[in-house]
């Protein structure tokens, strides 16, 4: 399928606003670069050569289209509803992140910039960026919170093997939000020859619309695949939401299909009452973080609240501005999924279908179980499996007690539970 | 908070009046920055007082913020320390009031989210009540500032927006048109922090800005010595010093006073 990134009725206004959200809350020093990027992107959106090159990479390098897999044994646990999995986990580098990275890397070359910087939490976006930079001969620096470099050590090694410099960030909470801060500081300093390859649908305009467009291929493919497979549209679409890029990517194709309900599942962490979660849309209030106005986890003084999730990729106090707009307009619904619920869904999909999803994606799968039970046996739920779970084996091994330490480790028990898993992080 | 009318003769203390005085004296103004609440709220009041006594014409009272993307390590660490020491946003008004009631001039420098959260109009009202003269907004550009334009007009506060070496002519023109009091020119592309040299980009930026405005132009980022202050004073209307003061706070109140004295001599060379 040819990538479709042309403007739609769901684009933001010229200043990048989705309703009252989005915009640009950035230092003036970055505005010229954002204007340059927006102008270059506007040209690329309608440039047949750019689209052909992107289509070629998606097909020959990423391996698109990604399959649609029906999950009947998993569906038995979802009230008998039909569960259809969009397999972004089968993309090269193991997640949906590569879709956006290839698009922005091509733009970087068009702009004549030679250096790319990126932030990463779980390491998926960092690995995808390092991969594209290796492919295209670009210098690559990845900022990663020190806490995340420790819990995702193998991804750090992958990025370094790919030739990227990985910079551990020791400021603030030493996680994803601080990695973005540090990337922004680098960008302000080196903007003349550096592109900031932001990994989600957050940040200042044009990032939210541009990153969304590079992920639209997920929903465009899935919509056609579902129609072909079952002869009608799904009743509901489920995706996990951290910053929200995979969710926007699959939602977009269905925005005008008003009978299709859209659901984003956020990090419920240890439960909303515990205060240790990342449920930005459920519990946050609008504010500015990392260059855009959106829902935000903040205290009454406007200081950002530190988040918690068993999934590093959902451990983020902000969210993309278009999601805030979809929430306010009611077009999409957002619900929290707790760590334990996500891990149960991860194990269930693994045991029933032989597919190990990323812990991020397991939040969407847990959501699909809820939706399926609400819809019943006639229901059809499309789930975005945004990434594969290989990177999460250490967390899963600890959570389920799979590592031999003298005890039996079948993975069946309530296992070590949240407490020990938390220790491992 | 209760209105205090800390400034009955507001006009005399305005930024306009300050820059008129400096112009008459044939020198640049010295502006010193310190985060409120660093290392504690009480200490920050004493340190700001030392800066004014030593020769700062104006102080920028910073709002410690959890995600300061325009700041280098020195000011990040100070903000962290202030937040850990229990700084609350409302404390900034008591710090400003302590400056104003001693006859000093203060503006507040803040990232936008704390103001947005407090309520833009309420923040402006309480800042004006405390005797503050305006706001410097490092991550608010005029394009997004409609509610601040209204609130600043309502409460008679100055709007100090930033321009950068990367700013186009068009952006400089629209930014200075939205500004009042003075315009903040960042001397280099980068974040706050003392540097050995502030580069030719600053002089060029000031020259470009003057083509669009009569407003005074202050230059900040990287200044730490009397020599640098003198160099900048040769082409700018204000020399802004931040990280160097923050570092001196870690030494002593006397060290802060001494730095202000040295810099004040620099802007008069």
From TrEMBL, chain A:
Keywords: Amino-acid biosynthesis, Aromatic amino acid biosynthesis, Lyase, Pyridoxal phosphate, Tryptophan biosynthesis. Residues 1-21, 403-425 are annotated as: Disordered. It catalyses: (1S,2R)-1-C-(indol-3-yl)glycerol 3-phosphate + L-serine = D-glyceraldehyde 3-phosphate + L-tryptophan + H2O. InterPro entries: Trp_synth_b_CS, Trp_synth_beta, Trp_synth_beta/beta-like, TrpB-like_PALP, TrpB-like_PALP_sf. It is an enzyme of class 4 (lyase). Gene3D superfamilies: 3.40.50.1100. Residues 63-387 form the Tryptophan synthase beta chain-like PALP domain. GO terms for molecular function: tryptophan synthase activity. GO terms for cellular component: cytoplasm. The keyword Lyase applies. The modification N6-(pyridoxal phosphate)lysine is found at residue 97. Its cofactor is pyridoxal 5'-phosphate. Its EC number is 4.2.1.20. CDD domains: Trp-synth_B (cd06446). Tetramer of two alpha and two beta chains. Belongs to the TrpB family. This is Tryptophan synthase beta chain.
TrEMBL record, chain B:
The active site is at residues 60, 71. It catalyses: (1S,2R)-1-C-(indol-3-yl)glycerol 3-phosphate + L-serine = D-glyceraldehyde 3-phosphate + L-tryptophan + H2O. Pathway: Amino-acid biosynthesis; L-tryptophan biosynthesis; L-tryptophan from chorismate: step 5/5. One of its GO terms (molecular function) is tryptophan synthase activity. Its EC number is 4.2.1.20. InterPro entries: Aldolase_TIM, RibuloseP-bd_barrel, Trp_synthase_alpha_AS, Trp_synthase_suA. Transmembrane segments: none annotated. The keyword Lyase applies. The alpha subunit is responsible for the aldol cleavage of indoleglycerol phosphate to indole and glyceraldehyde 3-phosphate. HAMAP family: Trp_synth_alpha. Tetramer of two alpha and two beta chains. This is Tryptophan synthase alpha chain. The gene is trpA.
């Amino acid at each position: 399928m040819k990538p479709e990134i042309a403007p739609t009725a769901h684009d933001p206004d010229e200043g990048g606003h989705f309703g009252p959200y989005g915009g640009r809350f950035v230092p003036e020093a970055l505005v010229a670069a954002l204007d340059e990027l927006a102008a270059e992107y506007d040209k690329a959106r309608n440039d047949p050569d750019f689209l052909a090159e992107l289509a070629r990479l998606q097909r020959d390098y990423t391996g698109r289209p990604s399959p649609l897999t029906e999950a009947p044994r998993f569906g038995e646990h979802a009230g008998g509803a039909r569960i259809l999995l969009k397999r972004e986990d089968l993309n090269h580098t193991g997640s949906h992140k590569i879709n956006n990275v290839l698009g922005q890397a091509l733009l970087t070359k068009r702009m004549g910039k030679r250096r790319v910087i990126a932030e990463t939490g779980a390491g998926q976006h960092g690995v995808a960026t390092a991969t594209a930079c290796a492919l295209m001969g670009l210098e690559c620096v990845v900022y990663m919170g020190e806490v995340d470099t420790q819990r995702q050590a193998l991804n750090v090694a992958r990025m370094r093997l790919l030739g990227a410099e990985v910079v551990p960030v020791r400021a603030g909470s030493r996680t994803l939000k601080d990695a973005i801060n540090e990337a922004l500081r680098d960008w302000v300093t080196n903007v003349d020859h550096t592109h900031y390859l932001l990994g989600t649908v957050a940040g200042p305009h044009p990032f939210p619309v541009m990153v969304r467009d590079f992920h639209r291929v997920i929903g465009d493919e899935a919509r056609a695949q579902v129609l072909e497979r079952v002869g009608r549209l799904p009743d509901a679409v489920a995706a996990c939401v951290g910053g929200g890029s995979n969710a926007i990517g699959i939602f977009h194709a269905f925005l005008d299909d008003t009978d299709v309900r859209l659901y984003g599942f956020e990090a419920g962490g240890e439960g909303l009452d515990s205060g240790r979660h990342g449920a930005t849309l459920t519990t946050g209030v609008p504010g500015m973080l990392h260059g855009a106005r959106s829902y935000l986890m903040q205290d009454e003084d406007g200081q950002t609240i530190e988040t918690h999730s068993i999934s590093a990729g959902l451990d983020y106090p902000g969210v993309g501005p278009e999601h805030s707009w979809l929430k306010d307009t009611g077009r999409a619904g957002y619900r929290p999924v707790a760590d334990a619920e996500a891990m149960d869904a991860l194990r269930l999909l693994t045991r029933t279908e032989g597919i190990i999803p990323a812990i991020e994606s397991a939040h969407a799968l847990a959501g699909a179980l809820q939706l399926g039970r609400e819809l019943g046996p006639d229901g059809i739920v499309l789930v975005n499996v945004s990434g594969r779970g290989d990177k999460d084996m250490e967390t899963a091994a600890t959570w389920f007690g799979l590592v031999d330490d003298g005890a039996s480790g079948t993975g069946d028990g309530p296992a070590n539970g949240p407490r020990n898993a938390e220790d491992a992080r | 908070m209760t209105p205090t009318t800390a400034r009955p003769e507001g006009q005399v203390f305005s930024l306009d009046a300050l820059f008129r005085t400096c112009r008459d004296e044939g020198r640049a103004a010295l502006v010193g920055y310190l985060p409120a609440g660093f290392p504690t709220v009480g200490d920050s009041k004493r340190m700001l007082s030392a800066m004014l006594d030593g020769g700062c014409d104006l102080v920028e009272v910073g709002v410690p913020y959890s995600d300061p993307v325009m700041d280098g390590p020195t000011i990040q660490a100070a903000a962290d320390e202030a937040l850990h020491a229990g700084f609350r946003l409302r404390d900034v008004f008591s710090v400003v009031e302590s400056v104003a009631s001693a006859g000093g001039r203060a503006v507040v420098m803040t990232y936008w989210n704390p103001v947005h959260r407090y309520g833009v109009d309420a923040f402006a009202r309480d800042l004006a009540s405390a005797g503050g003269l305006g706001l410097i907004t490092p991550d608010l550009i005029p394009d997004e500032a409609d509610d601040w334009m209204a609130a600043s007009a309502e409460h008679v506060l100055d709007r100090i927006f930033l321009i950068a070496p990367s700013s186009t002519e068009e952006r400089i023109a629209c930014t200075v048109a939205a500004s009042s009091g003075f315009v903040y020119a960042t001397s280099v592309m980068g974040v706050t922090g003392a540097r050995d040299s502030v580069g030719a980009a600053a002089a060029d930026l000031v020259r470009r800005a003057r083509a669009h405005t009569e407003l005074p132009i202050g230059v900040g980022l990287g200044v730490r010595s009397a020599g640098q202050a003198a160099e900048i004073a040769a082409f700018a209307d204000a020399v802004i010093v931040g990280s160097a003061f923050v570092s001196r706070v870690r030494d002593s109140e006397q060290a802060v006073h001494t730095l202000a004295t040295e810099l004040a001599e620099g802007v008069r060379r």
